[in-house]
C-alpha cells in the first residue's frame, strides 16, 4: 500500500447526509424513517441559508420550530378557508341546480306559451276569415234590405190607399147603421088607400079606373120571414122576436121601435 492511503489525514470524510444515513442504517431504522430524517435535515439547512449544523444550536432549532408552527397555523387557516370555500361552492352548486331546474321550468313555460301563441294566431286568422265572411253577409243583407225597402214603398202606398178606402167604407157602414124614421105599415097602407082612387071614380085624367088597390094583402117586402136561425138552423119557439132599440120606426104617438129576431140557442140576432 502507498503512504497516502495509509495516512488518515488524507482520507476524505463522508458528507453530512451520508453520515446520517450510515448512522440510521447501523441502528436498523426503516427507510421511511431515514427519508423523514433526511427531509427535515435538509429543511433545517436550507432554512438557515445552508449553514452547517455544527455552526448552529438550539436557537436555530427553535426558530425552525416557530416557523413550522406558523406554517401549521397558516395551514389550518387555509384549511378552514378551504372548508368555507367548499361550503360556498356546495351552496352555489345547489343554487345552480335550482336555477337550472327553474330555467327548465321557465323554458317549458316559454314553449307552452309559444304553442298557445301559435294557436291564438291560427284562431285569429280563422276569426278574421269569419269576420270577412260576416261582413260580406252583412253587405248582402243590407242590399236585400234596400231592395225590400224599395219594394215596400209601393206596398205602403197601396196600404194607405186601402186604409183610406176602408175608412170611407166604415163611414158608409156607420151612416147605414144610423136609425132612420120609417113609416109604420098601417100608415103606409092608409096613405096608399087614400091616394088610390076607388072603383067607379074618375082618375086625375078624367078616365074611370078599372082596377083598385088591395090594401089587405101585404107586399112581399112587408111579409113576415120564416123563423129559422141562419147560424144554427134552429126554428119554431127557439126564435123570439124582440124590439130593436137601434131602429125607430115612428115617433107618433110615441117612439115605435123596429122588430128583430133572436135565437135562444146560439144568441144570434137577425
3D structure, described in words:
With about 270 residues, this protein is mainly α. Helix content is about 60%, strand content about 5%. The protein is built from five helices and two strands. It has a two-stranded antiparallel sheet with strand order 1-2. α2 (about 15-25) runs antiparallel to α3 (about 30-45). The N and C termini lie far apart (about 190 Å). Residues about 1-5, about 180-185 and about 185-225 have low confidence and may be disordered.
Tags for this model:
mainly alpha; 5 helices; 60% helix; disordered N terminus; 270 residues
Determine the structural class based on helices, strands and strand pairing.
mainly alpha
Tell me the β content.
Answer: 5-15%
Could you tell me the number of beta strands?
A: 2
* Number of discrete helical segments: 5
The helical percent reads: 55-70%
Within the largest sheet, what's the order of strands? 1-2
- Rg is 75 Å
Distance between the termini: 189 Å
Low-pLDDT segments: 1-5, 181-185, 187-225
Q: Main sheet?
A: 2 strands, antiparallel
Average pLDDT metric: 78
Gross geometry: rod-shaped
Describe the secondary-structure layout.
Elements: H1 3-6, H2 16-26, H3 31-47, H4 58-177, H5 185-195, E1 239-250, E2 256-263
Antiparallel strand pairs: 1-2
Compose a concise summary of this entry.
It is built from five helices and two strands. It is mainly alpha-helical and 270 residues long. The protein has a domain at 226-270.
Amino acid at each position: 500500500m502507498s503512504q497516502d492511503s495509509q495516512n488518515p489525514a488524507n482520507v476524505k470524510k463522508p458528507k453530512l447526509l451520508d453520515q446520517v444515513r450510515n448512522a440510521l442504517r447501523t441502528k436498523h431504522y426503516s427507510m421511511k424513517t431515514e427519508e423523514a430524517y433526511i427531509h427535515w435535515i435538509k429543511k433545517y439547512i436550507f432554512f438557515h441559508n445552508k449553514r452547517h449544523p455544527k455552526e448552529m444550536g438550539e436557537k436555530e432549532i427553535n426558530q425552525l420550530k416557530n416557523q413550522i408552527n406558523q406554517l401549521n397555523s397558516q395551514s389550518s387557516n387555509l384549511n378552514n378557508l378551504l372548508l368555507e370555500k367548499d361550503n360556498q361552492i356546495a351552496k352555489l352548486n345547489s343554487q345552480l341546480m335550482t336555477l337550472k331546474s327553474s330555467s327548465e321550468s321557465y323554458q317549458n313555460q316559454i314553449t307552452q306559451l309559444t304553442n298557445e301563441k301559435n294557436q291564438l294566431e291560427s284562431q285569429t286568422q280563422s276569426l278574421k276569415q269569419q269576420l270577412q265572411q260576416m261582413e260580406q253577409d252583412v253587405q248582402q243583407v243590407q242590399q236585400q234590405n234596400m231592395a225590400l225597402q224599395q219594394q215596400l214603398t209601393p206596398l205602403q202606398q197601396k196600404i194607405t190607399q186601402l186604409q183610406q178606402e176602408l175608412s170611407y167604407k166604415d163611414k158608409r157602414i156607420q151612416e147605414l147603421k144610423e136609425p132612420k124614421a120609417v113609416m109604420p105599415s098601417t100608415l103606409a097602407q092608409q096613405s096608399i088607400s087614400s091616394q088610390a082612387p076607388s072603383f067607379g071614380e074618375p082618375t086625375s085624367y078624367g078616365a074611370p079606373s078599372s082596377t083598385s088597390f088591395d090594401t089587405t094583402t101585404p107586399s112581399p117586402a112587408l111579409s113576415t120571414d120564416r123563423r129559422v136561425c141562419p147560424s144554427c138552423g134552429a126554428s119554431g119557439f127557439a126564435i123570439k122576436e124582440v124590439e130593436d132599440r137601434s131602429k125607430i120606426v115612428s115617433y107618433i104617438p110615441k117612439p115605435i121601435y123596429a122588430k128583430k129576431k133572436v135565437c135562444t140557442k146560439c144568441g144570434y140576432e137577425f
